[in-house]
């Protein structure tokens, strides 16, 4: 393949443990690309606290340009205690919101998989959790996160308001995406999660989801209230295949799903729009308490590389080879410290590299 055909990856290490885990993810991606004769180029950009320190803005224009001309974006994490006191529009998380909104990344995929060797890491009993293989599809560009906010009055008279708007079109596109993905999975099931007994947006969500379901006769669509879903996730997580839900519910349920796995250190994510670039990041965040010590778990970032190949570049075989190597390493007992083992960040990545098929 010539350099002209190379797929361009924007790499944004960000803050906290972001740079450490992203370095390992890039190592694995580069090696898998070499083996599969896939030409990838990596170009680094600044965002989050790192960009605030260097450029005074959470996402400077050159980073947005870099992202726009890339085929996929690999991001570590943004944020940290040092920047928490800044005004809202200058906080590191704004980098994420700007990318989500300007690139229209409306579908956020967060898989939770509990294979046999991982069942011990879960706080749930093995017989409840082993074999869990679910994918949360979280709507990412609407709802409370982007609705109008206001604050009036002061002290005891203060009143704050957030609004939760959703249009039928916003609901339709994300539910469609969830159904399309369900078609590629063996069980072909979608659980649409809402609070239709209380919220008007949820009633619209359920109507539109039902309509979309008719377009996919080969997909089994069910509806579930969000409080019940939170319960079912810990009671019987294996019942779920694809779960689709609005922004805030998805934020909460995806952390719960990571809790079912027993660690945030294993959950990758993909944020997709209708066209590239998608944004690929581990769910765990910056973990400032362990940053810079070389002990962070790189597996979520490495698995994020697999999602980048599969959903960002449409390359299934190299994506699957990364996942196979990660499951093999876990089956062989390789564990980072936060999983109760002794491997550091680079050693864990070495263990994955050594097991690539
Ligand atoms: C996530 C995070 C972000 C979110 C925060 C950092 C703003 O929790 O990606 O789940 O709420 O979307
Ligand atoms: Mg979250």
In short:
This protein is of the alpha/beta class and 357 residues long. The chain is built from 12 helices and 12 strands.
Task: Note down, in words, how this protein is organized.
With 357 residues, the chain is an alpha/beta fold. The chain folds into two domains: 190 residues, Isopropylmalate Dehydrogenase, CATH 3.40.718; 152 residues, Isopropylmalate Dehydrogenase, CATH 3.40.718. It contains twelve helices and twelve strands. The strands form two sheets. Strands 2-1-3-12-11-4-5-10-8-9 form a ten-stranded mixed β-sheet, with helices on both faces. Strands 6-7 form a two-stranded antiparallel sheet. Helix 7 links the parallel strand 8 and strand 9. 49% of the residues are buried. The mean pLDDT is 96. Bound molecules: 3-isopropylmalic acid and magnesium ion. The site of 3-isopropylmalic acid has 3 residues, from helix 4.
């Amino acid at each position: 393949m010539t350099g002209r055909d190379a797929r361009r990856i924007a790499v944004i290490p960000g803050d906290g443990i972001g740079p450490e885990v992203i370095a390992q993810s890039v190592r694995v991606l580069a090696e898998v690309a070499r083996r599969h004769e896939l030409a990838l180029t990596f170009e680094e950009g600044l965002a989050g606290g790192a960009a605030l320190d260097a450029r005074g803005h959470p996402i400077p224009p050159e980073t947005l340009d870099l992202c726009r001309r890339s085929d996929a974006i690999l991001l570590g994490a943004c944020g940290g205690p040092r920047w928490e006191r800044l005004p809202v529009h200058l906080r590191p998380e704004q980098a994420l919101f700007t990318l989500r909104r300007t690139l229209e990344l409306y579908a956020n995929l967060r898989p939770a998989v509990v294979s046999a060797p991982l069942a011990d890491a879960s706080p749930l009993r093995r017989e409840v959790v082993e074999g869990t293989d679910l994918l949360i599809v979280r709507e990412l560009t609407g709802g409370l996160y982007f609705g109008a906010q206001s604050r009036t009055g002061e002290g005891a008279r203060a009143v704050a308001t957030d609004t939760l708007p959703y249009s039928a079109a916003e609901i339709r596109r994300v539910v469609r995406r969830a159904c399309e993905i369900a078609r590629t999975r063996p069980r072909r099931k979608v659980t649409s999660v809402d609070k239709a007994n209380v919220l008007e947006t949820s009633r619209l969500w359920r109507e539109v989801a039902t309509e979309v379901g008719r377009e996919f006769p080969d997909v089994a669509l069910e509806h579930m209230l969000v409080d019940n879903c939170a319960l079912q996730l810990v009671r019987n997580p294996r019942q779920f295949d694809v779960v689709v839900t609005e922004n805030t519910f998805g934020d909460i349920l995806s952390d719960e799903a990571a809790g079912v796995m027993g660690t945030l250190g294993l959950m990758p994510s993909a944020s997709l729009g209708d066209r590239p670039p998608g944004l690929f990041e581990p769910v765990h965040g910056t973990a400032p308490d362990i940053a810079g010590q070389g002990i962070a778990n790189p597996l979520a970032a490495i698995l994020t590389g697999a999602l980048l190949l599969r959903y960002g570049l449409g390359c299934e075989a190299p994506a699957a080879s990364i996942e196979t190597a990660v499951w093999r390493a876990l089956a062989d007992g390789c564990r980072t410290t936060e999983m109760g083992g002794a491997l550091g960040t680079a050693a864990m990545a070495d263990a994955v590299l050594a097991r690539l098929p």
